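Sample intake — Golgi mannosyltransferase complex subunit
Collected from: Recurvomyces mirabilis
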Amino acid sequence: MAVTRSLRRNNTITYVLAGGLCLFFLYFFFGDTTSIPQLPAYAAGAARHVLKSKDAAPNELSPPSLPFRKPAKLAEGERAAPPPVVHYHMNNVTITSDPVGNRESILILTPLARFYDEYWDNLVKLSFPHDLISLGFIIPKGREGNLATQQLQARIEKTQAPTNKNRFASITILRQDEEPTILQDEKDRHALSAQKERRAAMSRARNALLFTTLGPTTSWVLWLDSDIIETPPSLIQDLASHDKPLIVPNCFQRYHNKDKDAMDVRPYDFNSWVDSPTAKELAGKMGPEEIILEGYAEMATYRSLMAYMADQHGDARTEVDLDGVGGTALLVKAYVHRDGAMFPPFPFYHLIETEGFARMAARLGWKATGLPNYFVYHYNE
């Protein structure tokens, strides 16, 4: 039986309408990305950040990875604009051995009780592109904290001046609510009796700083203590080139050797180590709230310390697997922190703070690596 002309016309119109409707839904679900500004992909699989790091957030709530500039005072009855809805595609945030080439963002975090000009001078000399670097500081309450804040802000004003083309992407300063209970001078803060309380406080400070500043576009986190005053300018690129989940250089200290009557170097950080049967046996006899501390004669662990593996003339790329790490200079892939690895302020397998962090990361499947012949230097008090 022949189909009438009107029915054929209706079928054609139906197909056209159906096709148009399908195109609309495809555009609605998959094509509405042009309204979200993104950085260009610099290589296949490179990170596509939703917003450029130099932009400022229009609202203090969103997006969390950008600096917020307080808007002008609103007129009477005027309401602030709501925070924007921002989409982040986390699978597109790369963490590679070439962070410069792939334009990967790094977050440098520093717990700061005292400010050293040498620390800042070394920081601004880092050769990693500063527009990819965000800085975060946490400073204790009290007179010393106030002084450190003033000194830090004075240097920030110069470095972040609009005329300086080498300024950092953003800087966040957190002030703690409580004054430190442990004195900050060298002798008191390194006393064995003060370590559990001191390092628990340090863990809480590190966690507060991390959880406040870690943004969805962050690829790397560099923990850099405020008394690290000398590193190679290529520190970030050098550490990242090993492509390890967490990696730590050897922390030494320059000092005047009276026996030689000349400047010399000596190990400083003893928290990067390879575990030993003695330490494991010691932990097995401890109560649940006791911790093992490294570098003290009263608690001999016989661990292999990376500080004593150093060869001043050895290959700087030599690697060693570690069970504990120090935090003077520690580079971490951001997804290690996102997986839940933090700094335990409580005994975690009888370890605390950075050493506890290494154990927690290991439990999550991320192994620590040390570079015994790659050096950073601590301030000599």
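Post-analysis note: Residues 3-8, 32-54 have pLDDT under 50 and may be disordered.
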